Amino acid sequence: MLHERRILVGVSGGIAAYKTVYLVRRLIEQGAEVRVMMTASALEFVGRQSFAAITGHHPATGLFGADSVSPHTELAQWAEAVVVAPATANTLAKAAHGISDDLVSTTLLATTAPMLFAPAMHTEMWENAATRRNVAALEADGHSMVGPASGTLAGGDTGPGRMAEPEEILQALDRLLAGRLSGIRVLVTAGGTREPIDPVRFVGNRSSGKMGFAIAQEAAACGADVTLVSSATRPAPTGVALIEVETAEEMAKSVAKLASEAEVVVMAAAVADFRPVDAAGTKLRRSEGIPELQLEPTPDILAGLAAMEQPPYLVGFAAETGSIDRAVEKARTKGVDVIVANDVTAEGSGFGSDTNQVALIDRRGTVDRWPLLSKREVARRLCDFLADQLQGRTGDG
Ligand code: CTP
User: Fold this and answer.
1) Would you tell me how many other CB atoms lie within 10 Å of the CB of residue 164?
2) In the structure, what pLDDT confidence band is assigned to residue 394 with cuts at 50, 70 and 90?
């Protein structure tokens, strides 16, 4: 589970920081990519070099003067999960209240990655009403705690407050990364289909497949069992089963075969609406004159899915040019659960771009506009949204 995952480890000032060195080493052994950030107090307990030697990267310790002009946002965006170990009472308090007065606290405020805190402090501090409130607030915000354990504390006292052992933290991190879509079967389509005119030429569109691939990748990172049916030729994201197709017809066949097994289908592909009636078997020659292209409709894959007896949760995409009003209409009429609409002519959105500005529109036509985000971030948020929706479905029975 930790293989190739990007884990940011925050170290705050407690004697348990010496165990964090071993935790980082275990993360590396498991194939994780690890970056470390340390508070000023943490530096009193362990040296930067210990972490640098193990991770191959100097730990980040300050907001200013580092190589990066914005270390907190860089680390915040890079991380797939953040582990704060040890998490002192002070660090928990800052995280709970959004205080951002050093690199670690600012990064915790800037990240959208899930966070795991391994508290370590004296029993009285752990049991203090203020710490109780802070821990409850962090848990209510969706973050997780591991430990503390009971045992001998610095100064010879005993009681709850000892940082959880590295192996226990690793297990908690595994559970955290198993993700919100764990065990859910998700079928994603991506790319623009190519409808042959002859063996050389096709009718196509500008879709790059980036959005669909990002969704497949993020859904897999959230623990989903993902199949991607794609007409874009890009390398398969880690953990995703890729089926390559070319035409709308082939995509329709693949989707029909797989849809009954899926709990969610995300139709991010730009499926051609029309195809040439009879593709020529051999290359059309210029000398033969201007060909007359007769078009016929392709199968409407989304409509087929919506007509299933027990349709999966259906996410449609609507590429519009200009206003998204027509997408609102599509959301109402297409039998999908939600439409992800974007104006492909808007700056920073659309085909080939690495960013996208979308609006989510539900069956009732309620529009939720998202800001301009990287396609990866759109995919992340969409997976979060799907996890919420599926939970709602199960909850409703
Ligand atoms: N779609 C599909 N099968 C098709 C065409 C489109 O399943 N033959 C899906 C797309 O994958 C997308 C959604 O339908 O999720 C909307 O595509 P879009 O082309 O915007 O919708 P249309 O209904 O074709 O509307 P328009 O009138 O704008 O062409």
Assistant:
1) 24
2) low
For ligand 1, atom 17, the nearest C-alpha belongs to 318
Q: Which residues touch 99 (CB under 8 Å, ≥6 apart)?
A: 93, 105, 109
In the reported structure, the alpha carbon of residue 2 is separated from the centroid of ligand 1 by a whole-number distance in angstroms of 38
Dihedral over Cα of 2, 176, 339, 255: its sign? positive
301 C-alpha to center of ligand 1: Å?
A: 8
N residues, the chain: 397
User: Residue 327's closest CA among 371, 360, 286?
Assistant: 360
Atom of ligand 1 nearest to the CA of 318: 20
Ligand 1 neighbours by CB, cut-off 6 Å: 248, 267, 269, 271, 273, 298, 300-302, 316-319
Ligand 1 centre to CA of 271 (Å) is: 6
pLDDT per residue as tens digits for the range 122-165: 999 999 999 999 999 998 887 889 999 988 887 778 889 999 99
| Cα gap 107→97, rounded to integer Å | 14
d(CA 217, CA 222): 9
Atom from ligand 1 closest to the CA of residue 330: 23
Whether residue 171 is predicted with pLDDT greater than 70 in this model: the reply is: yes
> Please, is 41 exposed, middle or buried when counting C-beta atoms within 10 Å of its C-beta (0-12, 13-18, 19+)?
middle
What is the set of domains in the chain, with CATH numbers? 6-178 (3.40.50.1950), 185-394 (3.40.50.10300)
- Determine the atom of ligand 1 nearest the C-alpha atom of 273: 8
Residue-level pLDDT at 397:
37
For 308-345, what is each residue's pLDDT tens digit? 999 999 999 999 988 889 999 999 999 999 999 998 88
- The H or E element containing residue 28 is helix 17-29
Nearest atom of ligand 1 to the alpha carbon of 339: 15
Whose C-alpha lies nearest to ligand 1, atom 20?
318
Q: What amino acid positions are annotated as catalytic residues?
A: 205
- Band (pLDDT 50/70/90 cuts) for residue 175 is confident
Average the pLDDT over 281-287 and give the result. Answer: 95
So what's the pLDDT on residue 182?
87
Smallest CA separation from ligand 1 atom 25, residue: 318
C-alpha of residue 330 to centroid of ligand 1, in Å: 9
Q: How far is residue 95's CA from residue 105's CA, in Å, rounded to a whole number?
A: 6
